[in-house]
Amino acid sequence: MDGNLSSMVFVNNMALAHIKNGDLETAVEVLEGVFTAPDSTNHSISFVFRKVFEQDNDKALDKLSAMAERLANHFACYRPASDLFLQLLEMDKIEDAKFMLARCSALAEQKDIMISYMARKAQSPGQIPSVRSWQQNLDNSRHKLTRRRCSLMDKDLSSAKALYEQIQKEGMVMDELSLKRLAVLYRNAEETAPFHEPPESFKFYADKLKEKVDKARTQAEE
Fold first, then answer.
1. Coil/strand/helix, residue 123
2. Dihedral sign (CA 196, 200, 105, 212)
3. Is residue 170 included in any domain, yes or no?
4. Domain of life of the organism in this record (predicted)?
5. Position 6 in a domain
6. Which residue, 19, 59, 71, 80, has fewest beta-carbon neighbours within 10 Å?
């Protein structure tokens, strides 16, 4: 058995053991540690989510859901959230999946994971209508995210302000390149930005963001 796979089986089972004992905080620490480590890889924790669903452990699910969304929104680590999202679909918890997609719209951009899932579902009898429905939902979410980002590129200050306020309200963090662009919009309108402008150049933050996105894409393909 592959060493990384064997290691993750151990981690998943350790987390489930803590969950069984009611120690949810330690379970979250164990799993979160895997994805926030400097040498982290794109491991799956679908097994953990599936077992929690099977046990109807709502308290554990709440904790793990919060962890998955935190990793996605603050660390651009989308695998746990993707695992949870797909498990919601597998359990026919469609409304819960839609709410999660609304809270974490970047899930719609994990196209390799989503396409792989939909391709598997499409091979089962009677699944084509649901696959088409989810494809439309994911496309709508991607378009919504794109429209938000375009407000910064189009120098639309009012829309950009609304985007910033929405991100703050949702407890998310705007990337430095977007903050830099927004700060310039405020300055050009002779208004004071409600945050400190990132000090480096646009190119610096663009390269940094590209590296981050490329790394996330590489992990999703592993």
1. coil
2. negative
3. yes
4. Eukaryota
5. no
6. 59
